[in-house]
Amino acid sequence: MIGQLSNPWWVFVILGICAGVLSGALGLGGGTILVPTLVLLCGFGQKNAQGMALAVMVPMALVGALRYWKNPEIEINTVIVGLIICGALVGVLVGTELASRLPNHILRKAFAAVLVIVAIKMFTTSAKPGQPNLDNLDTSGIEQKTALLHSSTTAKDEVSSLVRQAHHPERSRRIEHGETNNEPEI
Predict the structure, then answer these.
(1) Is residue 83's pLDDT more than 90?
(2) In this predicted model, which residue has the larger pLDDT, 184 or 98?
(3) Please, are residues 38 and 107 in contact by the beta-carbon 8 Å criterion?
(4) Cα 86–91–93 angle (5° rounding)?
(5) Which 8-state DSSP code applies to residue 102?
(6) 105 pLDDT tier (thresholds 50, 70, 90)
(7) Cβ 28 vs Cβ 22: under 8 Å
(8) What is the C-alpha to C-alpha distance for residues 32 and 37, in angstroms, rounded to an integer?
């Protein structure tokens, strides 16, 4: 099986190491490195390269995500991750169907165009002023603020109840005892 490889086995190991380092360090999907290398240097077709890159990404992404998750300085929002996964699963079904219908040369050009657009966007776009940096968001005290907000809402309800009792004592008594009628709300 190893004798049937298009390149020496160690080329693929080195390719995996490079993809893993860049994926772990920069958060790049392995496909960003693997697909062009498999197509241009190893001679695989675009669809074959994309399929192999997707297969490699699963274990690589799991190990990388676990390492980031264990880092106490990094907070991974599991709700956002779950929502992205839901969308990604639908998207990959559509994308793989589309890829199976398109010719290799079209896929290759589309892949290259996406890489160029993303690269240009990353080079030319800086952080927008006035937008919060959620990476350094101080969340200490949120519980106290939430409790204060809840208590102020409860206090507002109490004041409203007292005002209603003062102006409409009979109606307030009926509301407290669960009696209803069709009187308009004041």
Answers:
(1) yes
(2) 98
(3) no
(4) 105
(5) S
(6) very high
(7) yes
(8) 9
